[in-house]
Specification:
The complex is a heterodimer.
Chain A (H helix, E strand, L loop, with lengths): L10 H7 L5 H4 L21 H13 L8 E2 L12 H7 L2 H4 L11 H18 L3 E2 L6 H16 L8 E5 L4 H11 L5 E5 L9 H5 L6 E6 L5 E2 L6 H5 L4 E6 L17 E5 L15 E5 L11 E6 L5 E6 L5 H4 L12 H38 L12 E2 L2 E5 L4 H10 L2 E2 L2 E2 L10 E5 L6 H23 L1
Parallel strand pairs in A: 1-14, 3-4, 3-5, 5-7, 7-8
Antiparallel strand pairs in A: 2-9, 6-12, 8-9, 10-11, 13-16, 15-16
Helix pairs in contact in A: 4-12, 6-12, 7-8, 12-14
Chain B lengths: L45 H12 L23 H6 L2 H4 L11 H18 L3 E3 L5 H18 L7 E5 L5 H8 L3 E5 L9 H7 L4 E6 L12 H10 L3 E6 L11 H4 L3 E4 L1 H4 L14 E3 L1 H4 L6 E6 L13 E6 L15 H14 L3 H25 L7 E2 L10 E4 L1 H7 L3 H10 L6 E2 L8 E4 L7 H16 L2 H6 L11 H6 L10
Parallel strand pairs in B: 2-3, 2-4, 4-5, 5-6
Antiparallel strand pairs in B: 1-7, 6-7, 8-9, 10-11, 11-13, 12-13
Classes of the chains: A alpha/beta, B alpha/beta.
């Protein structure tokens, strides 16, 4: 018997009050031809106890990252999120509310999101931020369509944007799906062999509507050349940067090197990885893009007593008012996850963020040093600086190496041939604030053993 | 008033962190990229941070706070066991790029959800990837677009939506590149088949419609509408926002739809979180299955050599890329945390999901009846009109406050603010657009008869209130009526540090 229905057993009483005799009367308006006549072929209802027991059995069969020594990241990092974040976010007033259409009884979430916008603005160095889109990939895609709306009239290369060739196929695919409807052509920006952006290739993008690059890029490389991008592409081409937000504790905010729109995967601030969702997408921009940006925005206002109050603003960009002319179809977003982000950022403070970034970077740098001591593997972008991750070139296939590491109890990293099919031997290894020095030693030892066995095998 | 940014504690305040694993005095950062100035974030200790957010929470209204009859949003109770399950490391602490043998439990749950959703909607294939209803709409429309491209029917450039549709329908179709044809509803709010016949043709790609409609009314001629669209060669798309009304009683498949999105957060109770996250899987008939975003979960009998876990009694679960997949709409596998919560919710009902919908409809009709009864009792029935003149509604109903507006200048927004003073969340106002001064009420199945009785009484009390009082409402809330025009004219979108 289901236990979520307060009026179970009182149906007759309620039907009587309406002058009806059965529940079927309530569905008499459904024509017979489309009625479902059979019972749903599903199992019987379960009690809470049975459900949690099944959940533990099923989810317990998974290998959690915390059960292993883990070097898998590829854009999602297992950072520590303070316990108070998880406790506070279960407050029913936050958890069970919805879009604050009635601001007078929604001041809590509205203010929290206005504060979130401020935290993000400060983090990325831009004037305006919205209160989240779905994730880093849709944030990038929506930034490019936004750039076209703003710049297409004056653009020499109409309906054209450029995207870094390193952007993984999964994100590219999202970008394709979001841009193809507008007839937008997505061209490619090339990179140098050391992984940095090729500035000659970039110059071809001048006069287009916008370009999208990532900092750090998908290979973990911090590219100092990006500070020159805006002078190359010019005022009428949007400079869109995808960031790893934690890195901004030590790396310059893109707004300060003239990025027009900054997007990114917010997850590392506030949220567990949760198999890749829910996450939250960061979206911030200069005022030029404000009226063409997607998603909800909170503004500060006053009530009739002149008291400070908050409400949603610039809603005429949105689908519930503008319908097919809206800047985006987004309605439900990731507010609660953004709230977790705001809580985490509040607890970090400026110096806490800096330290968190340093811890992430130090782990990555220590690993690079340790792995570069192994003669049977190579680090192709070794002279670059990295955040969170870098590429290891193996003497054999990355897939086989990961399988070997799995037998040793390590989640060894990401096989980059899934992104770049010609790179069969490239392993992307990731390190975060949760990585311990002993774990790096362990990875180095296993990689040395595995690669040596391969090299010896080859020479024998 | 407490502002986060007024907490300016000592440097380094916040939660303590372990030291880095290596010295940080020689971090390798290109000189052009060294951050010159840290963000102006606040500095709070944990006690201050906990109090700030707890204080904010007391200024917010949720289902846990009180009755939340926000039409179209299905604000039902969120069982807390779902939150506990979503925190288990087997979902919270797994990565979307882990190999299949490490995540068999999640794949088994996904497979069960794909099957269940397909069964409930009468669809042949399901993807869980879209992360919200609007994204589900967009995804399904993209699949339909590729279906026609694959058939060489490039002239199908138009999507038909009724004027009562959710705003996301035209916005999603336009984002995919379609031209929108809006057709008027009949006087009684129902679909106008003649208007539909007049616009369909060989340029029709799809019709997007929800049933019950946004008026809360079941469209009895839905099968005829589907025939008209299909005969013109178009596809039928079901907006699943109102799915809570019909589960186990009918299905989009039976009504003749080709594709559907589910709002898991509505129908299966993922907490709405102040505006998200949601989850918007889609289901399609077999002819569209090969276009779904990938990958989707399939299973096969166990083979020798599989790295078995306790989940693999008979089946091995694996990812499968549909043959002509449109690709990705979210770069991983969607809002998996929401899917797991909704799995827990579905398990609570199992084959009795029908009872859930029956109670949603029972409550909506009962509340509508009680409001009318109370209004008649004290002679204020003339102040509002039915949004749709029908005997029974489904999970929600609409009323028009236009008569009251005419009589004393009090419209839907004033009534909404009056209800806030009574301790309720207001119904959805001014939607659908085709009902003047509309209030859209959706009680959901998780409200007791007593709550509904009380709300009906209070609603009618508000109607009798002095117009001046209602113009001034609310007065009991944390702030009084907020000036939205001021917010737009004096844009302050972040904390003014220099003020």
């Amino acid at each position: 018997m289901v236990d979520q229905l307060p009026n179970l057993g009182r149906e007759k009483e309620m039907l009587d009050a309406m002058g009806m005799s059965s529940i079927d009367d309530l569905f008499a308006d459904i024509p017979e031809a489309v009625r479902m006549t059979e019972e749903l072929p599903l199992p019987p209802p379960q009690s809470e106890e049975e459900i949690i027991s099944d959940a533990r059995r099923l989810l317990g069969a998974n290998v959690a990252l915390g059960d292993r020594v883990n070097f898998l990241g590829a854009g999602l990092n297992r950072n520590y999120v303070p316990a108070s974040v998880f406790q506070l976010v279960t407050r029913g007033e936050f958890l069970t509310s919805y879009t604050p259409y009635q601001p007078e009884v929604s001041q809590g979430m509205l203010q929290a999101m206005w504060e979130f916008q401020t935290l993000i603005s400060e983090l990325v160095g831009l004037e305006v931020a919205n209160l989240s889109v779905y994730d880093g990939s849709t944030a990038a895609a929506e930034a490019l369509t936004c750039a076209v709306r703003v710049h297409n009239r004056k653009a020499e290369q109409k309906d054209t944007v450029y995207v870094s060739e390193l952007v993984p196929p999964s994100r590219r695919s999202v970008i394709h799906n979001y841009t193809q409807g507008g007839g937008i052509e997505v061209k490619t920006l090339h990179h140098n062999s050391d992984g940095t952006l090729n500035l000659d290739s970039l110059s071809q993008a001048a006069g287009s509507c916008g370009i999208y690059v990532e900092q750090p890029n998908p290979l973990g490389i911090l590219d100092g050349g990006l500070t020159r991008v805006k002078e190359i592409i010019g005022e009428n081409t949007a400079f869109v940067v995808g960031v790893a937000p934690v890195s901004l504790g030590v790396i310059e905010a893109p707004g300060n090197y003239n990025a027009d729109i900054v997007v990114g995967e917010g997850q590392a601030l506030g949220s567990p990885i949760t198999y890749g969702g829910p996450l939250y997408g960061i979206f911030a921009c200069t005022k030029t893009y404000l009226r063409q940006m997607p998603g909800r925005i909170v503004g500060r206002s006053i009530d009739v007593d002149d008291k400070e109050a908050f409400c949603l603003t610039l809603s005429t960009r949105e689908q519930h008012i503008r319908r097919h002319r809206a800047t985006s179809n987004i309605c439900t977003n990731e507010t609660l996850i953004a709230l977790m982000g705001a809580m985490h950022m509040s607890l970090l403070g400026p110096e806490g963020l800096e330290k968190l970034a340093q811890r992430n970077m130090a782990a990555c740098q220590l690993a690079k040093q340790k792995l570069s001591e192994i003669s049977t593997i190579a680090i192709p972008h070794r002279n670059n600086s990295h955040f969170n991750e870098f590429v290891v070139e193996l003497p054999g296939s990355a897939a086989e190496c990961i399988a070997y590491l799995d037998t040793q109890g390590l989640i060894g990293g990401f096989d980059l041939s899934a992104w770049y099919p010609e790179r069969k031997n490239w392993l992307l290894v990731s390190f975060s604030d949760q990585t311990k020095a002993t774990e790096i030693e362990l990875l180095a030892a296993h990689l040395a053993v595995w690669s040596a066995s391969l090299v010896q095998g080859v020479s024998a | 008033m407490s502002h986060l940014f007024e907490h300016e504690g000592a440097d380094g305040k916040g939660y303590s962190q372990p030291d880095p694993v290596a010295p940080v005095d020689n971090l390798q950062i290109p000189s052009s990229l060294v951050r010159a100035k840290l963000p102006r974030w606040p500095r709070l200790s944990e006690p201050e941070m906990v109090r700030h957010y707890t204080w904010l929470s007391t200024r917010n209204f949720g289902i846990d706070t009180g009755f939340y009859p926000l039409g179209s949003c299905t604000m039902k109770h969120n069982p807390r066991i779902n939150e506990v399950i979503a925190q288990l490391p087997g979902i919270a602490d797994i990565h979307p790029l882990q190999p299949e043998h490490q995540i068999q439990g999640t794949l088994a749950i996904f497979h069960e959800m794909q099957d269940m959703l397909g069964i409930c909607a009468g669809m042949d294939a399901v993807t869980l990837q879209p992360v919200a209803g609007a994204q589900g709409e967009f995804t399904a429309i993209r699949c339909i677009q590729e279906y026609f491209r694959g058939r060489g029917e490039l002239g199908r450039t138009k999507v038909i939506v009724p004027d009562s549709a959710h705003g996301t329908n035209p916005a999603s179709a336009a984002m995919a590149g379609f031209e929108i044809i809006e057709i008027p509803s009949r006087e009684d709010g129902r679909i106008d088949l003649d208007a539909l016949r007049a616009v369909v043709g060989d340029d029709t790609a799809a019709m997007m419609i929800t049933n019950p409609s946004t008026l809360g009314v079941f469209e009895p001629e839905i099968a005829q509408a589907a025939d008209i669209v299909h005969e013109a060669g178009g596809q039928m798309y079901y907006d699943g926002a109102n799915f809570n009304a019909i589960l186990g009683r009918t299905s989009p498949g039976l009504m003749g739809f080709d594709a559907v999105h589910y709002n898991l957060h509505k129908t299966f109770s993922q907490p709405h979180g102040g505006g998200g996250p949601g989850s918007g899987p889609i289901g399609v008939k077999s002819h569209l299955a090969k276009f779904l975003p990938g990958p989707v979960v399939k299973r096969r009998p166990i083979l020798a050599g599989d790295q078995l876990t306790s989940v693999n009694k008979e089946w091995w679960y694996h990812w499968h890329q549909p043959e002509n997949s449109i690709g990705k709409v979210q770069q991983w596998h969607g809002n998996s945390g929401a899917v797991v919560r909704c799995w827990a919710y579905y398990r609570r009902y199992g084959r009795e999901l029908k009872t859930m919908s029956e109670h949603a409809v029972l409550n909506a009709n009962y509340l509508r009846h009680k409001i009318i009864e109370e209004a008649e009792k004290i002679g204020v029935r003339h102040l509002f009109a039915d949004g749709a003149p029908v005997d029974v509604v489904k999970h929600e109903f609409t009323i028009s406050m236009a008569p009251m507006k005419e009589e004393c200048g009090i419209g839907a927004m004033d009534i909404a603010k009056g209800l806030l003073d009574m301790g309720y969340m207001a119904p959805t106002v001014y939607f659908p657009l085709i009902v003047p001064e509309c209030m859209m009420v959706e009680p959901t199945e998780t409200e007791s008869k007593e709550t509904l009785d009380e709300f009906a009484k209070k609603f009618v009390e508000v109607l009798q209130e002095d117009p001046d009082v209602l113009h001034n409402a609310p007065v009991t809330t944390k702030v009084r009526r907020v000036d939205e025009v001021y917010a737009a004219r004096n844009l302050t979108l972040s904390y003014p540090f220099d003020e």
